Amino acid sequence: MIEELSATAAELEAASSEEILRWALARYSGSIVAACSFGGPSGMVLLDQLLALDRTVPIFYLDTELLHAETYAHIRAVAKKYDIAPIAVHPAIDLAAQAQSYGERLWDRDPDRCCGIRKIDAQRRYLSGYRAWISGIRRDQTSARARTPVVEWDRRFEIVKINPLARWSEREIWSYIETHNVPYNPLHDAGYGSIGCVPCTAPSTGAETRSGRWPGRAKTECGLHQS
Description:
8 helices, alpha/beta
């Protein structure tokens, strides 16, 4: 499986994002799902391109119960514009239960465990019903993502992962958004390059778009894209 996917990734390396999506939709028809955090511009480009090709693929987001009010409003606006119903994937426990089991403000004391509970475990449960998932991550977002293939085996979730926008640049993403009038999270206009949970997100401070995530810590990933 891994060798086959590596060969496919090499074959699709120069393909357009739409071509990669068409391949994935045909290969995993009926058992593929797309992730959109509604907290980054790449996800919106992915959503726009996917819906132009296939409106039957489920689109989900992780509702950690800690998203910005602007993000929730953005989700509602996008749902109305595209006439879709994004699926909110929730953690197994709510914030009150998490505080009771792990103490208040776990994200401050142990952000990796908080991400594990509110994101990774939730996504693992949801993806267990599918053969492949589509992500909007790009190589230029962080050094850790620099070698992201367009198709790969996701060891963390034991599922095929499709990254149609892997080769895109930040400039290309925003150019597409402007050209196609794609809605985006309004927090980007306030200096946020990447938007996650309220306690762990601040305006970007460096060259990498995710430099505002977990400010003051070496942490740059929640773990969803770390196989």
